[in-house]
Write a structure and sequence with these properties.
Chain lengths: 169, 169, 169, 169, 169, 169
């Protein structure tokens, strides 16, 4: 994966610490990167900004310092709206979201905090806000992924690169 | 991935429904299977049974019908102890675990329900129970993985293959 | 109560451990058995299966190993549907219940987890699902009884007879 | 049970509304009264005041208006200390309890709010505070009983006799 | 503030212990008294009784012994209804409130227990129950004030004057 | 209070929106400002930075967008450490605090989320970390104040001045 790290360095100017953390084992790094890239950068009915908004809303629920820092910066960058990133870190209900994005984050937060209570009625609310069943899969997969990453980061005291803090303020 | 499904059929006698659910998109199926196989079947200081015990304890906290059914069966099989599988489904504190496995599941359940509160003291407790830092990574990665899978399964109403129910009773 | 134990032995093939636990004092055993038999086996607008379903849904909320084991077996037996017993143990929302039984278990779980919040609106929902006021009493009394039994069992580390695990799989 | 009601009227000056509520069915009234009298008035290593203190601490956790009113009055009467009754209604930690009674109520409140987490360590704390295993049974049985009664009372909107409010102020 | 204490003594017959607690620093006492008097005794669309009802409902949520005792007495006095004071201490849902006061206390309790979830829909419910936007400010300010006072009282083990217990029974 | 607003404008370059919100009534504005200035700027054994750290830790627990924004900026400014402000917003446990400040924030968060459970043992922990009883009062008063302000801000949808977002990054 040295080539991948080189690519991060060239494109971002740094290698995200999460990748350094996984790099002790090449198989683990590769499966993590493959899943991340597919979910966050691959084809989807959700924009990249929307996927990052989900990442931050989930990480706020789980109070994950690493992911709030890294993905908060991504929301600020993709949206060109520094306040939006802060609002989703602090309380997504404070953001002035349109109906689609509000429904998306309400679902993300319920699936994070009460996964046992998610049922057909919740999916129906997403459909009424304009999401397809494939979109619902993608929302769920991103919610799931950050519920995984938040826990790996907290459990191993992963620390975000300092550079994120100043990005897109 | 048709070859992989064939292999499942030959080895298990069926294709787990979770794989069928992911199969609408080959990239998603491959990354899921790669991560699953590395975590649950790859080299680790944790036995395969221990990894399945974590899967069930996490899924019990999240009340995930799919994962409790499939991985509860795995605990019954790997341990040769049908009661152990039931106990971890219902309340892992009811199982008569040795100190190592109890510490492992206490950590798994705290990381599931209060990820924000996991700190050095929690890792220290695992070390005192005999786990290395690499083991702590593996525990955390399995906890993370099932916090992801539980949510994808609940969000999409995934249903376990009926065959699991009767296995290893 | 020796005659009663004999009757259990003849009818069930064993004496449930809960009875053995109460048997240190005849008055306590008698009042427990009298209340149990009236509630679970006496006349009611609820079928015996429905009363056992409530027992399991309540015990799942309280994560009571004894009661989930013994009454999970009873749901499997009365319903002739092994999956139903497992589903209510794990997450009753995963069971495909009709409107009546879903309303009944929703009420049971709310009364278990937030008894302070149960009000006329909750009773009204039961009535709209077809229950009479007498039925509501019976549901409430069974919910209450298992909120008692779950706590006595957990507080005294009561262990279910091993035989339950294999019943009606 | 008419004789029993007569006895209540003679001794207390009124028939507690809970008995009136159960009186629609003689079998239910009899089993309730038999269990209540055994637990709250029968032989025990716990004083009657201590059993009433448990009743109030449990009912405060469940915010049961009926039981807090009726048993709050009982604590005021048995203790001759009106403040003690109020304190346990409001927050038992505010009462200046000796070590034995504090351990007893800590156990009662944990068994009420997290029955799944009660284990040998909790019983051990009671033993260190001077309780025998029989006492632990009695504490648990009273905790269980009020977790039942609180729910039957809330579910059926049971209202306490007005007379309790003014007693032993 | 000696004159103010004299006024309390003359009017109430005692100096509330909360004032004695703040009296170690004149500036702190004065700002506390000024805010209290403005909020609880100043002009408002809420009656003094309604403001005391909010005080008690909030303090019940926070289980504050001092405030439940002092303001429970105030509800009994202002309402001339001893039961109402007890009901709001125990569980405000048990009181037979009109629509306006029920909406007011529902809002107060939600703002106390889940301040992050209060949104326009919650304010809308208050408006539909007849409250103006200025009333909503006053409700919120009283809720806020007792969320402050409850914590100062609990943190410093403040004890209510004994005289409150017997008032207006 | 026009003079005070003028002073804010001269000193800060803007009038904090919270003051504008209170300005509809001079008495309310004055009591709020007086209490705020005494608590946050007056003499205390706590530094101004420490009082702001408490403000942010409490506001994070209550997920208050206004207070996290305004006081997060204050922590960044007073500490000269932009990361510290972010960490306390996200999860104060992620900050590398010394023993004194960690004990202070642990107390603040417990008093915020479980005020009913704060007892002598909690105060004792603060004393062992070097705090006097007067310091404990000041910590509690600041915790109380922000539990008030968070709720007034959330209840009235108060929005922070945009300028805070870019300060001291």
């Amino acid at each position: 994966m040295a080539a991948y790290f080189k690519k991060c360095q060239d494109k971002l100017g740094f290698v995200p610490n999460v990748l350094a953390a996984y790099a002790f084992d090449n198989a683990k790094l590769e499966t993590f990167v493959a899943m991340y890239n597919d979910l966050m950068l691959g084809d989807s009915g959700l924009s990249k900004l929307e996927r990052e908004m989900i990442a931050v809303a989930v990480s706020s629920q789980n109070r994950c310092y690493y992911c709030l820092t890294a993905h908060g910066a991504a929301v600020r960058q993709y949206s060109g709206n520094p306040l939006l990133g802060e609002q989703i870190v602090m309380n997504y209900r404070a953001a002035r979201l349109d109906r689609r994005q509000r429904a998306m984050l309400d679902f993300a937060v319920k699936l994070t905090s009460q996964p046992w209570g998610v049922e057909e009625g919740d999916r129906e609310r997403l459909r009424r806000a304009g999401f397809t069943d494939r979109d619902i899969w993608d929302i769920s997969a991103v919610v799931g992924f950050f519920n995984m990453s938040n826990r790996v980061a907290s459990a191993t005291d992963m620390r975000p690169n300092t550079v994120y803090h100043g990005q897109a303020r």
